[in-house]
Amino acid sequence: MIADSDVTYQIERLLVVRLGAMGDVIHTLPAVEALREAFPNAMIGWLIEERWTELLCAAGVPRRGARSPQRPLVDWVHTVDLRGWKKSFLTATTAQQIARVWNDVRSVGYEVAVDLQGAIRSAILARCSGARAIWGAAEPWECPASLWYSRPVITRGTHVVDQNLSVVEALAQRKFASPHAKLPRDHPAEQRVGKILAEAGIRDFALLNPGAGWGAKRWPAERYGLVAKSLVDDGLRSIINYGPGEEELAREAEAASEGAAALLESSITQLIALTRGAKLFIGGDTGPLHLAAALRVPVVAIFGPTNPARNGPYGTRNIVLRNLASPTTHARRSDPDRGLLNISVEDVVSAARELLHDAATETRHG
């Protein structure tokens, strides 16, 4: 139950709204782990874009019911397909899909909804859930979103993970000691990834990711290949991960590696399995980097226009490379940021070797 005042008591049904994207969902996981800790018996649901569901629930696993290693955090995964619905908004099929989602959401009887996206659309969806109390940041990403909150919270911290946690701390009326991001385990995916690596003769490897959301955040792909060539001297093969639309970048990096790197396109579930086994991750401000950080893989983060203080790797050993010539902006420019181009292959290799040395020293000293 929840009181009408600002004081919260037991909450039995709680909805989290964070639709996407990959890195943002991962940055939300610690806050939801904190909710689980604060309300261990609550039924917690999550409203998310269909394409990101594997971050919460392994492929082929039921999206509601008793939690398991395959769906470790939430009791019910509610999905929307806003991108698809937008393309066919006036069709009967879309109307039926929307109705089914909202029937499912409202049937739960959520008492509280927590919008951890801070966008107008996510705030509206939280309000439409039927929950009596809507929590969110007092100064959200899109300022008008706060108009839909009944419980706006003045957030603390610079990093988005800390900001999300501060909303949850206000709701739970307690502090949390650095909750981690709990991700699904999928044994078939782990076995498949293990088989691929074994057949390629790859044991110790670095995971390289040349893609990013837009061009200004992308370090040149061929430089990833040159990094892979250098890491061979450290006993590491490299695997170049890529997603839809990034095939050309991946091939460019592979060609520059002259055989030191292998390509691997994967689903999200397979990427989680692959990342768990990596000795090192190298990439820009993109979802796979934040996945690696959440899984405690050492990270070399190559940043351009986005601010690593807010969006950088969180919770793992990391080195962030960012040139002073990079302005802080989220303008989606297609050309690489000038400061990003000033980061050399040698800079990245040096950072990678420092992290590998630190990990080896830690292993020797137990």
* Helix fraction by DSSP (H/I, runs of at least 4): 25-40%
The tally of domains stands at: 2
Major sheet: size, sense and barrel closure? 6 strands, parallel
CATH class of the largest domain: Alpha Beta
Tell me what the structure shows.
This protein is an alpha/beta fold and 366 residues long. The protein has 2 domains: 13-172, Glycogen Phosphorylase B (Rossmann fold, 3-Layer(aba) Sandwich); 187-364, Rossmann fold (3-Layer(aba) Sandwich), CATH 3.40.50. The chain contains 13 helices and 12 strands. The chain has a 6-stranded parallel β-sheet. Helix 6 (187-199) packs across helix 9, helix 7 (221-231) runs parallel beside helix 8 (247-257) and helix 7 packs across helix 13. The longest helix is centred in the last third of the chain and has 20 residues, at 345-364. The radius of gyration is 21 Å and the shape is globular.
Layout of secondary structure:
Layout: E1 13-17, H1 22-38, E2 43-49, E3 76-80, H2 82-87, H3 92-108, E4 112-115, H4 120-128, E5 133-137, E6 151-153, H5 160-172, H6 187-199, E7 205-209, H7 221-231, E8 237-242, H8 247-257, E9 261-265, H9 268-276, E10 280-283, H10 287-294, E11 299-303, H11 308-311, E12 318-322, H12 338-341, H13 345-364
Parallel strand pairs: 1-2, 1-4, 2-3, 4-5, 5-6, 7-8, 7-10, 8-9, 10-11, 11-12
